[in-house]
Amino acid sequence: MSAATNRTATAGNLSNNGNTTNQQDPASYFLALARQGSPPPEGLTGGADEEYEREDVPTELNTINSSGGFVVVSTDKLSVKYTNVNLHGHDVGAVQANKPAPVKRLVYYFEMYVKNAGARGQFAIGFTNETFKMRRQPGWEANTCGYHGDDGHLYHGHGKGQPFGPTFTTNDTVGAGINYGSQEFFFTKNGAIVGAVKKEITGALFPTVAVHSQNEEIEVNFGQKQFAFDIKASCSFFSSLPCFCWINLSVCMMTFEYERLERMKQHLRIDKTPLSPNASYKLVRSYLLHYGYEETLNSFELATKNTVPPISMSQENGSDVQDIMYALNQRRELRQLIRNGEIDAAINKIRQWFPQILEPDYLLQDDKSATCFLLHCQKFIELVRVGELEEAVNYGRMELAKFFELPGYNDLVQDCVALLAYEEPLQSAVGYLLEGTQRETVADTVNAMVLLTNPNVKDLQGCLQSYLERVVRQLTVCCLEKRSLSGNQGECFSLRRALNSNYNAKGS
Amino acid sequence: MGESKKMISSVEWEKKLNDVKIQKEDMNRLVMNFFVTEGYVEAAEKFQRESGTETGIDLGTIIDRMAVKKAVQCGNVEDAIVKVNDLNPEILDTNPQLFFHLQQQRLIELIRNGKTEEALEFAQEELAPRGEEDQGFLEELERTVSLLAFEDVANCPVGELLDISQRLKTASEVNAAILTSQSHEKEPKIPTLLKMLIWAQRELDQKAIYPRINDLSTAMLEESAV
């Protein structure tokens, strides 16, 4: 088959070293997957929370640019005291956080606790931009926003504020946050929402606190302690108006997660989208067919025929759909063997049924079969798992050594070999190789390669990924692209988060 | 018009697609969630065995729930009510609307079976008091009772109440209520993801031209016309 001419044959993009000699080997796609379990480099969280991974977050106060002379910042950089005697409007002791608020999330929030109201209780909490002059209250200058304790007003770019909420003083905890979903600033006092305003400031925003009369003292909390306002678990009920609205304080107080509620609002909007009723069923069926989950498929098909009304899952234009019933039974058996770690048995069956996928020059120009390689690695791992280290070493010398130093293969070989070095390999950085997910990846590789032996196959990509997976990828990329084209703020789609979230809250 | 849209080539788009990291186990969880929420117990069991994915819920609760749903779908509303209360008496207590709809369905079934006297008695004793509490219930009650006024019930203005779709609607409602009471989601995640995809593509259409998925069941990418 001419993989080269197929527009969807993008295996070349997928090998983990961008190696072009693996251009046409679909299994190189799985080579990259085989190392997906390995821990990411320092500083990245990786995996499903990718949008968090590259952003710094505020952790303490910035002592370098604070208005020196008026304030003293504690050694732990989490408290501020106004030591001066204030005389006018340009000797405010404002302090910013060390980093701007992260943007690639739905909500950012921080709090301030008032230890001492000092002479006049003229403190404030809010957000300011990079060029803010630290001698002014947040909110008094353009591109800043602040909620002030002495008058309970909100200042949003001028010296004249507007009535907003209660004043606050000693022992009060106030919070300030940014809701990227609705593009609003919101403020809280002692665990309850005070109100919100539309955010029109663009660019990096620094959490900012300020003190302005003698002996005022406040403490900040950037998340190192639990917040008084439980951003994750309590808020008042918001009416489900579209974005860009003032949050209405409803009389009805229910417990919801603030973030979750915001997502629920979006969810409600999306929920109204019309969808053809059997689309999900078709995707689930094709998923089972793709991966060879034969027993599940049979049970599912039977059950759907018996539902009231019966659900039809066949494709409308059967001729365009790939024949993924191909070798269903054999694929099921191979998956079972590999999932049980019976690699030798699996290899024997493959030799019997689909010898071509073990041949080095199948589909490729170069002389290595990635499928073979992954099976050998797994065999090696299984030997280590049961403690047969000597046999593992011999096996490694025989089958893995030739892949050493080869781009695309080398990383995995090294990780496998490293297993031998540890007494407790599971606790090591290469422990991921011993997890069930590794067997799963090998099973998926073999499955895909068998699908490719089908003489009727039309869509290369369809052998590597199920339609359901394609849907998830498309959704993720559309959200990422949409976000990057709209100021790059806000949350993005994450399958892991969608799986863990529950839009169903009691009382809804 | 609007500002010009960003053009994203197929090659560029494919690269973005391939950069997304997806874990197989998460995909399996999506499918398991579908079986469990839609109530396909045997499929869930088989899938657990074949893929090693946890069901995440006691399958016994699904069987109970499906029994209730089936009872309503077959018109055995009394049986369904008994089963729901066995499962969790609070469900009907805290869901007056659901309870009303179940009673309404009972009335419909009595009318369907020609038990006119029994139907009227039932309507007066059980449903009328509820109608007094709530205007919406009263209107529904009146609609249902009006079935008795017609010879050719199938073609009368409220004939749809006799349709199987009415049973399915009620069955769905009770299914959702049980799921909610078990702190489970009412709907599987896959349809939600599909809706999100439709919505996300529509939103992105305003700002960019890129390969779209237009047929959800094959998830094939199609180049957009410029």
TrEMBL record, chain A:
Record's protein name: Ran-binding protein 10
PROSITE patterns (UniProt xref): B302_SPRY, CTLH, LISH
Domain CTLH: 327-391
Span of domain B30.2/SPRY: 39-227
Polar residues composition-biased segments: 1-26
InterPro entries attached to this UniProt entry: B30.2/SPRY, B30.2/SPRY_sf, ConA-like_dom_sf, CRA_dom, CTLH/CRA, CTLH_C, Gid1/RanBPM/SPLA_SPRY, LisH
Species this protein is from: Linum tenue
Pfam families: CTLH (PF10607), SPRY (PF00622)
Region of interest (Disordered), ranges: 1-50
Gene3D superfamilies membership: 2.60.120.920
Highest taxon of the lineage: Eukaryota
UniProtKB/TrEMBL annotation, chain B:
CTLH domain: residues covered: 61-118
Domain of life according to the entry: Eukaryota
Pfam families associated with the record: CTLH, LisH
SMART domains named among the record's database cross-references: CRA (SM00757), CTLH (SM00668), LisH (SM00667)
PROSITE patterns: CTLH, LISH
PANTHER family: RAN BINDING PROTEIN 9-RELATED
Protein name: CTLH domain-containing protein
High-level lineage: Eukaryota, Viridiplantae, Streptophyta, Embryophyta, Tracheophyta
